Amino acid sequence: CDIEAGSRMTHDRLFRIMSSGKPITGVALLQQIEAGKVSLDDRVSRFIPELANFRVRVGDAARPPDDTFGTISANREITARDLATHTSGLNGFLLDIPPTVPFTLAARVPYARNLVLDFQPGTRWAYSAVTGPDILARIVEIASGTPFDRYLHERIFEPVGMRDTAFNLSEEQRVRVVPRYGRQGSAWQRVPGDVELADRLLPRTGGTNP
To answer: What are the contacts of 52-57 at 24+ separation with CB within 8 A?
Structure first.
């Protein structure tokens, strides 16, 4: 499973489940809905006041996101439903965060206020790879009063026997993670930036991360 090291796959190696984490976040959200703590129609600002007002990009949609563009005010606030159905207009990673800000959902999710929406909330579908799910995770933290990683461990992973699944890995688990490869011609090459991508993803916790 590690071409450079010449090691073989074993039954205890760990795989990054990538966007399969979104259904897990969805389960946590549904649990909080069943508990009466969250409604799909709740405005995000009910839980995170900083995310009440957004600007929406206008102009040529084919232009690169970092190109100069105009903006207008969003017609309405983003809701939990928008986030859960990928119709919020949010995309990309959180930006413009000072390096001194703790690397947690609680500290960093409010910086989503700096993002410009790709379209008016609820008007289109577009896959939100990171930001939308991170905001939902923070909503679950607030509604449940439990850091998201601990919530998943106690309420989802442990009850169904997923005892080797986590957002934040222990050092023992880290050494068992399988590296990612992509096919280049006739050879498998390690995916460039794989480690860097993992470092850009927020640990889903309200506390200190390893």
So the answer is: 52/77, 53/77, 53/113, 54/78, 54/89, 54/113, 54/115, 54/116, 54/117, 54/121, 55/116, 55/117, 56/89, 56/116, 56/117, 56/118, 56/119, 56/120, 57/116, 57/117, 57/118, 57/119
- What does the pLDDT read at residue 77? 98
Amino acid at 38: V
C-alpha of 203 from chain center: 9
CB 77 within 8 A of CB 176: no
Percentage of the chain exceeding pLDDT 70:
87
**For the chain, which residues score pLDDT lower than 50?**
207-210
Residue carrying structure tokens 């023992």: 172
CA distances from 90 to 153, 169, 181, 182 (A): 27, 27, 29, 28
pLDDT at 199: 54
pLDDT of residue 143: 97
